[in-house]
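Same chain as my last thread, 253 residues:
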Amino acid sequence: MELIIAYEHDAAGYNMAKFISRHLKIKNGIYRGKFCDVIIINSPTIYADWITKYNYDGYIFLSKHMAKSNILSLTCHSTGIIKTDSINKIKQVSTPHPYLQKSYIRSLWNNRYNFPKFQITLETTHHGPSSIHKPTLFIEIGTTEKQWNDVNLCNSISKIILQNLPIKKSYRTAIGIGGTHYPSKFTNEIINGEYAFGTIVPAHHTKFLNRELFNNILKQNYMADSIIIDVDKLKLHDISNLIADLNMKIIKI
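reply #2:
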């Protein structure tokens, strides 16, 4: 059973959660369903590490997507802190949700003609929650208030989410290293290839990888048997010591 979480002041997340929970009965503040429960919280989802007080198999966060470019995007990504800041002071990642992520992105792609103005893409791992030890995924609608408040759009995305929740298919899974914040090679692999992806570290963040964080990534990505590296614009010396002698398949693309 998955728990779907949305922040009450996040228009896109709230609209999606409202649609998914529309026929569900609420008990103790949680809408109860067959394949998922839904909770609407009063604090931002990126700080919701506390959500594990509710015991579920996985956690799906619904959210708006923001970008300076204002390019319209439908995205999803795993969560974690690769680069610390004044708020996020511990480098760590949550357990990813690779099978659902792959199924969802593939479904979006198969329905892309319903979203002709939107880029369908993975994002690399970023922001919290960063300490969850069960599968965790952010699903986002971007990129401006017009899209966040587009009820029909939010409902359409919600339907695709619901279609994928009963699917319990597993895929070969890799940790991704390299690429930009929108890792096109990894998105293409998810849509057309064999692999699903867990944590993805973009090329511009590999300099922040250290042994402690990398061990945390390996632990949280227990389902991964490979590391796929996008070598474009990647400084391989940043990761060479970390991946040496790993009992994992290393694939360079």
